[in-house]
Amino acid sequence: MLDILNYLPRKRKQTPSGWISTNAPCCDDRRQRGGLKQSEQGWSWHCFNCRFTASFILGRTVSFKARKLLLLLNVPSIEIDQLNLDSMRHRSMTGLLDDRQRTFDQLAGLTFEERDLPPFAELLTQEGSFRDYVRNRQVPEDYPVMIQSHNDGIHWTRPHVVVPFTHADQIVGYTCRFLDNRQPKFITDCQPGYVFGTDLQQHSWQHVLVMEGIFDALSIGGLAVMHNTVSDAQARLIRSLEREVTVVPDQDTAGTELIDRAVQLGWAVSIPDWPPGCKDVNDAVVQLGRLGALLTIMAARETSRIKIELRKRQLAQKLRT
Fold first, then answer.
1. Class of domain 201-321
2. Using CA atoms, how far apart are residues 313 and 217, in angstroms rounded to an integer?
């Protein structure tokens, strides 16, 4: 079987999340803005410069985009043809069952189509106000936050950072967070049923935290539903992770709706007694650190409906005073 690593440029580095950063042959990049991530069944490629994407999964034919990438990496055509043949040979009954499972996932709203990032989005690599903002929000250094590379006078001209949405290591949307004090604060391209942060989860984790905001999830390695409720499709996706679910609502009036939905779904709820100024998980991580915030969340975790309702009333009383 073809080992794509043998054909990557020698200059490369691997991030803690498993991505291999290297120069991108699809656009003659020289700043290691190409990313490859391998799995047991194949690989995914994304260029954060020209936004070219490609992927290969054992048991499927080599797609046009995957073939194009391999040719750009100087893989001989005969080896690509052999890879395609080997992949088809692998397509046994297991492969057919996998196809049925993927069809089920699509019908259940557990898969999403690839999407393009905004025009002129470029990986954030330089120090400055954008990098300071991202660090202040406690975003992991290896998460591919982006910025608009130049202003063409047509697209959004307000300063902003772009947070790509990924699922199964593919770009499926994004949110733009504007850094001035004007409204709106966010412009988002999000598919129905999407939950941010599934790719942040580690296989060994037994618990998963569910929050409202993108930066909440990024700062602590959790999931974000991006509003103050959980849709049925989002609930199915979260359950598919097969973890103990704990919902951590924003400590404001809107957050009480997320508490009610969590109880309805039979999930645990955590409403920690955070210091003044901490309205959500991201605030807590900024003040207490990631470990400190996580400890307060797990200490306040409740599964009893009666105790959750009591904590909800205490929160409502706190908001009124």
1. alpha beta
2. 25
